Amino acid sequence: MIAAHDFIATLISDPAMRERVLSVFSALPEDVQEEFMGDPGFGMGIYDTGPRGGSRLLIPCPQPAQGSRLVALERSLTARSRAFAHYVIAHELAHALLRNRGRHPEEDPEVAADSLAAAWGFPRPATLPLLGADPKGEPPILTVGPTGVW
After folding, report:
1. Nearest Cα to 71, choosing from 38, 50, 98, 53?
2. How high is the pLDDT of residue 148?
3. pTM of the full predicted structure?
4. With 50 as the cut, is the pLDDT of residue 64 above it?
5. How buried is 24 (Cβ within 10 angstroms: 0-12 exposed, 13-18 middle, 19+ buried)?
6. E strand residue ranges, the chain
7. Cα separation of 80 and 64, whole Å?
8. Beta strands 141-145 and 69-74: pairing type?
9. What local confidence, expressed as pLDDT, does residue 143 receive?
10. Helix 82-98 to helix 30-37 angle, to the nearest 10 degrees?
11. What's the chain's average pLDDT?
12. CA angle 132, 136, 142 (to 5 degrees)
């Protein structure tokens, strides 16, 4: 089987993003890594949302009875804190592993992805940068607490 480093290098060409993805991917349980590496329907890509953003991500060819799985990561993750970026990457990999479903029919897919990311060692940060905040400046902070978001 291909090494995790070589596998991620085939999917992510940007060195900064590749390092962050590899940090998370290498921490996943071995059976999860093997599932992704052995799935021809799995892919990862980087997209931009800046003023001149716009990216083309190719979805892997769907596999019979399994479909395809694409993890799309925003380029700005390379400018975010390591903990936040690792959480987002793990959360998105969890969605791919669970095929955007919960672990059981009643479970919300977002709760399932957060829970799995935390089990892998990448818990949801207590504070999250607001969407659209400038990653190079002081981003506004969104606080997540037991009574909601403020």
Report:
1. 98
2. 41
3. 0.80
4. yes
5. buried
6. 42-47, 69-74, 127-129, 141-145, 148-149
7. 37
8. unpaired
9. 42
10. 70
11. 83
12. 45
